[in-house]
Amino acid sequence: MAKSLTSHRPALAVALKLSALVLFTSMSALVKALSAEFPPGEMVFFRSLFAIPVIIAWLTWRGELAQGFVVRKPMGHFWRGVLGTSAMGLTFTGLSLLPLPEVTAIGYATPIFTLILAAIMLGERIRMIRIGAVAIGLVGVLIMIWPRLGSGTSETAATIGALCVLAATVARAFVQIHIRQLVQVDHPAAIVFYFSLTATLLSGLTVFWGWTVPSWEQAALLIAIGLIGGVAQILVTSSYRFGQASMLAPYDYTTMLFAIIIGYIWFDELPTLVMLGGAALVIAGNVVVILRERQLGLDRTKARSATDPKA
Predict the structure, then answer these.
(1) Could you tell me if 205 and 90 are in contact, meaning their C-beta atoms sit under 8 angstroms apart?
(2) Which among 102, 123, 228, 306 counts the fewest CB atoms within 10 Å?
(3) Can you give the C-alpha Rg of the chain in angstroms?
(4) Over the stretch 121-173, which tens digit does the pLDDT of each residue have?
(5) Would you state the torsion angle of the CA atoms of residues 178, 183, 189, 193, taken in this order, to the nearest 10 degrees?
(6) Is 273 exposed, middle or buried (0-12, 13-18, 19+ CB in 10 A)?
(7) Would the pTM of this model clear 0.70, i.e. be above it?
(8) Which residues of 14-27 are buried (b: 16+ CB within 10 A; e: fewer)?
């Protein structure tokens, strides 16, 4: 029988969520640091493979391992894996080409695209408040990526990076929509487990495009990416057992602070005022959506717990 850990403990929920966000940002920094030596596909492989033992140990402790192996919609998990793996690979590519705070800021557009896709694919009604939030968010996205759309040769890499991260946010939005459908038939434990498994298999195929053989020290860092990602996923999932999604969602934006600190200390990066302004608009649009969902009583905790934020 599964252990019931669900209760209303907001302080613990916030602590778990913030810990997860620090780990996710640190994982992104590791990916960025290794990106000059290893292709994105190889890093996605390590990120996915070494998250699996962490997830299995957690599901065993939760008493949910059996549910983690049972699926009723296998092709749904396959396509969730394709979309999620693509989003992760695109994000890792963007990290190799852009500053860490910029990648973090563009990633905030995911909820905006999720809202648009929910209206198109699920038929959800979007009233004027949400339409305004989407408009504000899209303007913010445009402001952030516009400086990267220059025609000069020196800006080509940054342009590719910005487009990759933007594509990753759209892919993650599709993942959110897909999970909303999957949780209707399969346990969240199965969604978490089979995503890691599918991502490992799919990213492993990139070996044919050339991988780099790591040194022992580099291998340890690659393994750490997977372990950190797995632990962070467990922490963020656990946070939603102790607090409502609408309460915890605004804490996602603390990753900008973490990214600025880590980016400055590790990579000597500082965000531009234009990027911060665009990010502020995207965050404002998202906050409007969060407040509106809280007002309407829409709690998507089950779906959120099965996703892996920022890949």
Answers:
(1) no
(2) 123
(3) 19
(4) 878 777 787 788 888 989 999 999 888 876 555 578 889 999 999 999 999 99
(5) -20
(6) exposed
(7) yes
(8) bebbbbbbbbbbbb
